[in-house]
Design brief:
The complex is a heterodimer of chains A (about 90) and B (about 120). Chain A is mainly α and about 90 residues long. Chain A has one domain (about 5-95). Helix content of chain A is about 85%, strand content about 0%. Chain A has three helices and no strands. Chain B is mostly helical and about 120 residues long. Chain B has one domain (about 1-90). The longest helix of chain B is centred in the middle third of the chain and has 31 residues, at about 60-90. The chains are: A mainly alpha (about 90), B mainly alpha (about 120). Chains A and B meet through helix 1, helix 2 and helix 3 of A and helix 1, helix 2 and helix 3 of B.
Chain lengths: ~90, ~120
């Protein structure tokens, strides 16, 4: 796609900047979070901002192959959350 | 068409900023889960709709719809699992909690609710 209008270019910059802010907020909570589940919900936000980054790269460059990377990222996020929840439940019983 | 894509991108970046604000500023792990799950799922869906409008083609449309369905299906499941396990681990809510339906002596609360005390008296 040929990007022509100035408004779209500015909004692409804003989208990249807000995704970077979300990723930095996730990193902040990863270091500061008082409990273990505070650190686990970072997986959620960082994976969704990563999916956003990949989608923005597809929009800008036109390489639609990277959509598979976004799908796998969402799958890994889900499996990681469920696996950590099961693991914590198993440690709770002992 | 480009104006519509730009508006969708601006809305998605707004919701991304809302979720990052929520994960920094809210007081409690439950509140943070509430903020980031809904806002970032909506932001991802808006990004995907903008992608469908920007790069039309059956491969992109199929993958984007699959990803939208996947995000809608899995984000509540994973967040529910994490919220339940954090209640069972005994992580306390913030100070002004209004309602906690899973409050028992072994979870987080100090006082027992009426239901569980009735059950205890029946057992005795």
């Amino acid at each position: 796609m040929e990007i022509q209008s100035q408004f779209l270019i500015i909004s692409i910059y804003i989208a990249f900047a807000s995704l970077a802010v979300a990723f930095l907020a996730a990193i902040f909570r990863l270091f500061k979070g008082p409990d273990i589940t505070d650190r686990l919900i970072v997986i959620d936000l960082s994976a969704s901002s990563l999916i956003g980054f990949i989608i923005m790269v597809i929009i800008v460059s036109g390489e639609t192959v990277y959509l598979n990377v976004a799908l796998i990222t969402a799958l890994v996020m889900f499996m990681g959350n469920i696996a950590f929840a099961r693991y914590l439940k198993k440690t709770l019983k002992q | 068409m480009e104006i519509l894509i730009a508006i969708l991108l601006l809305l998605a970046s707004f919701f991304t900023l809302v979720s990052s604000f929520g994960i920094i500023r809210l007081h409690d792990v439950y509140m943070r889960m509430h903020a980031i799950t809904k806002a970032s799922s909506l932001a991802t869906i808006l990004f995907l709709i903008a992608l469908i409008l920007a790069q039309p083609g059956w491969r992109v449309v199929l993958g984007s719809l699959l990803l939208i369905v996947f995000v809608i299906a899995t984000a509540p499941v994973s967040t529910h699992a994490l919220a339940k396990i954090s209640l069972q681990l005994g992580i306390k809510m913030a100070k002004g909690e209004v309602r906690n339906d899973m409050k028992t002596d072994e979870n987080s609360g100090i006082e027992l609710s009426d239901k569980s005390s009735e059950q205890e008296s029946e057992d005795a």
